[in-house]
Structures are given as structure tokens and as C-alpha cells.
Design a protein that fits this description.
By secondary structure, the chain is α/β, with parallel strands linked by helices. The chain has 2 domains: about 1-165, VC0802-like; about 175-390, HUPs (Rossmann fold, 3-Layer(aba) Sandwich). The chain is built from 14 helices and 15 strands. The protein has helices spanning about 20-35, 55-65, 85-95, 115-130, 185-195, 215-225, 240-250, 255-275, 295-300, 315-325, 330-335, 355-360, 365-375, 385-390, and strands at about 1-10, 40-45, 45-55, 70-80, 100-110, 135, 145-150, 155-160, 160-165, 175-180, 200-205, 235-240, 280, 310, 380. Helix 5 links the parallel strand 10 (about 175-180) and strand 11 (about 200-205). The longest helix is centred in the last third of the chain and has 19 residues, at about 255-275. It is elongated. The relative contact order is 0.12. Adenosine-5'-triphosphate binds next to helix 5 and strand 11.
Length: about 400
């Protein structure tokens, strides 16, 4: 049996000049997500219709709920534009859904239709009341809105809407490189960037054998979870064992983390430029730890020219955790594997580091060479392709 879903774009429709581009992109993204379900998509100015096979209804709804750019969607019913027929069908479906209270909201998209919306509401409501015994009108808090859209040939009606994620279609903004640790914050940062239409690649720094393959697997799982919202994600796994050991041996404990993070930024910028990523994205949050004070951010950020976006910079940890739970990354993030930032942790990391001191310390290691070795030994995988990473774990 076939069904129809009506998709509304919301915020997209306000972007006048780019609207066509946005809608085409959204349509492509939806097509890609629904490609295994044999659907037919029809685009209109402010909406899309997806014709689908009812067997796949649950899967399709799940996919649409994780697609950015969709404001809301509904399962709709289609009837010929004929008042008697509309009343009959609405009542039939309404009873099937077992709703008890309703309010009718009609939109006359075909302005030549002879009955005004407000009168049509009354016609449908009285028909329902006349032909049922336990269904009532409730204009303030109905169990179901009966939305009726009258077009020239066909009329669509649907009950309540399912809320979409909003935001912009992924890819509308080009690519950004997400610094993805195994923690709670960075997957949320990635999700928020995706929401604004940024396509993401991810970069993960590891220091085998001080960090484990379990930690790597955790990051792959997180990237996969993010890819539910974005299509395939490329993950760059960068080995920084030597770099980190040099820092540990030669640099004053209080500056170790600051210097390590300056190195991570330098490597991220190089990998971003090589892969045409226009920004870096990370999960830093103001004041969360010593390396995230405003002074630290200055000293760390100054080693790169590329813009760095910190979507969770002003969120409290609890707010970040709420989002992590909602997007299903939290349970993975709290698995207890060591990250390279948590090994060799100094007792008293500097809170207000000085740029000049960093530069002095950095002279003690041949970091250009260590960085270029790390980049040369980077492994890049597509996390949605099981074959590509099966040998890595
Ligand atoms: P998260 O911030 O993801 O919860 P965390 O709190 O352990 O993890 P921080 O030490 O707060 O990480 O680091 C701040 C940010 O730096 C992270 O959100 C992430 O964007 C980046 N980062 C830290 N460690 C790594 C790593 N091993 N690989 C890639 N990025 C990292
Ligand atoms: Mg953090």
C-alpha cells in the first residue's frame, strides 16, 4: 500500500535568493537518505511530497527525523476535491486513529474553490459530530488538528505534524573539520555545525600505545552516529605518539597541555586546507578546563589562520549533556577510555599561558618535523564503509 508524506521547509523559505538551491539540496539529501526505500519525491515552492511504500513507514519517519532543513512533516491523505468525499474520508481516517477531540483548520490553496476556509471548517466539523457519538470539538487543546489543504484537483488532509530538526540542509555551507575526541562535547559541537548546513569531516589524535584501540573505536562509533545526520563522514586518524612523548620529556609540565593543543591546531589546519575544509570546529567551552580560559584560547588559537568555530563555547556542561543524550552520542562518550589529552596530565596546568613562553618551549622540540610525520602517517577512512576500518580495530 502506498502512502504520502508532506514535508515543510520552515526557515528555508525565508532565504529568498537561495531558495531554489536550498530546496534542491534538501531534496537530494532526502533522496540519499531514503534511497533504499523506493520513494518518489515531488518538489513544490514551500513543500515536498514523498510517495512511499507503507511497509517502510517507520524507517522513513526515522530518516526524516534526522534530516536537517525539515521544519515539520506529516503523513497525509489525498482525496479528490469534492466536499462530500473529503468529509467522509476525514471521518474514516479520524476514527481509525482513535482520536477523541479535534479542531479543523482548512487552507484554501486554490482560491477559486467556492467555499471559504472558515465555512469549510464548519461543514467538516458538523459532519463529524453528526456521524459519530463520542468525538468532540476542542478548539483550545485538541488531541488532533484536522488540517485540510484544498487544491484544484486534489485535497490533502492530515492530523498532527511531526516536528523536524530545522536548521539548513547539510552541505549548503561547504565543509568544516571537526576535532573529534571521545568526549561529550565534540560530537555535540559537530551536530550543531551540521545543523547550520556545514558538512563535516572529523580529525582524531591518538597516541598508541598510550591510548587504546578501544578509544579509537569509540571515536569511529561517534563519527558514525553523527553520520546519521549528515551522510558519510571521513575521519582522519592522526598518530601523535612521538610528538606527545617529546612534549612530555622536554617541556615544563605546566605548559604541556597548552603546547599539545597548539600542535593539534597546527595539524588540524594543515589537514583542513588539504581537504578543502573551510573552518575548524571543536568542543571547547569557555572556562571548562585550564586550556579553555580566554587567555589559553588566545595563545592556542594564534598558531592558525583558519576560523575556529566553537558551537558549545557558551553552553553549560548540563546543557551539552542534554543535547548529547538527545542525539544519542552520550552513552558512547562516557565509555571510560583514555584520550591523548588525559594521559601525561600535569598536576597544575597553566591557566594564563604566555605566548612568548610557548615559543621558547617549542624551540626545544623539532615540531615541524614531528607534525609532518604525523600528517604523513595519518589514516583516513569513511566511517560508513565497514570494509575500510575493519582492519583498524
Ligand atoms: P569533549 O570536549 O569532546 O567532551 P574532552 O572534554 O575530553 O572531550 P577537551 O579536553 O575539553 O576534550 O578538549 C576540547 C576540545 O578539543 C574537544 O572538544 C575536541 O574538539 C578537541 N580535542 C581534544 N582531544 C582531542 C583528540 N584526541 N582528537 C581530536 N580532537 C580533540
Ligand atoms: Mg570538553
Amino acid at each position: 500500500m502506498k502512502g504520502i508524506i508532506l514535508i515543510k521547509y520552515g526557515e528555508l523559505t525565508t532565504k529568498k535568493d537561495n531558495r531554489k538551491y536550498f530546496i534542491n539540496l534538501l531534496c537530494n539529501n532526502i533522496e540519499e537518505k531514503l534511497k533504499s526505500f523506493d520513494v518518489v519525491i515531488t518538489k513544490e515552492h514551500s513543500r515536498m511530497y514523498v510517495q512511499y511504500d507503507k511497509t517502510f513507514e517507520k524507517d522513513i519517519i526515522r530518516e526524516l527525523k534526522t534530516t536537517f532543513g525539515i521544519h515539520a512533516f506529516s503523513i497525509v491523505y489525498r482525496v479528490e476535491t469534492d466536499t462530500d468525499l473529503i468529509c467522509k474520508e476525514v471521518l474514516k481516517k479520524f476514527k481509525e486513529e482513535k482520536f477523541k477531540t479535534f479542531k479543523v483548520e482548512t487552507k484554501r490553496r486554490d482560491k477559486t474553490f467556492e467555499i471559504f476556509s472558515i465555512d469549510f471548517n464548519k461543514i467538516v466539523a458538523s459532519y463529524i459530530l453528526k456521524n459519530s457519538s463520542d468525538i468532540y470539538v476542542d478548539v483550545h487543546n485538541p488531541e488532533a488538528y484536522i488540517n485540510i489543504e484544498i487544491n484544484k484537483d486534489y485535497t490533502y488532509f492530515y492530523f498532527n505534524e511531526i516536528k523536524g530538526l530545522g536548521g539548513y540542509p547539510v552541505s549548503v555551507q561547504g565543509k568544516g573539520l571537526l576535532m573529534l575526541s571521545g568526549g561529550i562535547d565534540s560530537p555535540v559541537a559537530g551536530y550543531l555545525a551540521l545543523k547550520r548546513g556545514v558538512k563535516i569531516e572529523a580529525i582524531y589524535f591518538e597516541a598508541l600505545p598510550h591510548t587504546s584501540l578501544d578509544a579509537r573505536e569509540k571515536v569511529i562509533t561517534l563519527a558514525k552516529k553523527l553520520s546519521n545526520y549528515s551522510g558519510g563522514i571521513k575521519l582522519h586518524i592522526v598518530p601523535i605518539t612521538k610528538l606527545q612523548e617529546e612534549i612530555y620529556q622536554k617541556i615544563d609540565g605546566s605548559y604541556m597541555i597548552t603546547i599539545l593543543r597548539r600542535m593539534m591546531y597546527r595539524i588540524s589546519e594543515k589537514i583542513a586546507r588539504k581537504n578543502k575544509n573551510l573552518i575548524l570546529i571543536n568542543g571547547e567551552s569557555i572556562g571548562q578546563v585550564a586550556s579553555q580560559t580566554l587567555t589559553s584560547m588566545n595563545v592556542i588559537n594564534e598558531v592558525v589562520d583558519i576560523p575556529v568555530i566553537r558551537p558549545v563555547a557558551c553552553f553549560d556542561k548540563l546543557e551539552i549533556i542534554d543535547i548529547a543524550k538527545r542525539i544519542d552520542t552520550y552513552e558512547t562518550s562516557i565509555l571510560p577510555y583514555e584520550d591523548c589529552c588525559t594521559i601525561f596530565v600535569p598536576k597544575h596546568p597553566v591557566i594564563n599561558p604566555h605566548k612568548e613562553k610557548c615559543e621558547e618551549f617549542e624551540k626545544l622540540i623539532d615540531y615541524e618535523k614531528l607534525i609532518s610525520d604525523a600528517i604523513d602517517n595519518t589514516i583516513t577512512i569513511n566511517v560508513n564503509n565497514e570494509e575500510e576500518f575493519s582492519g583498524l580495530l
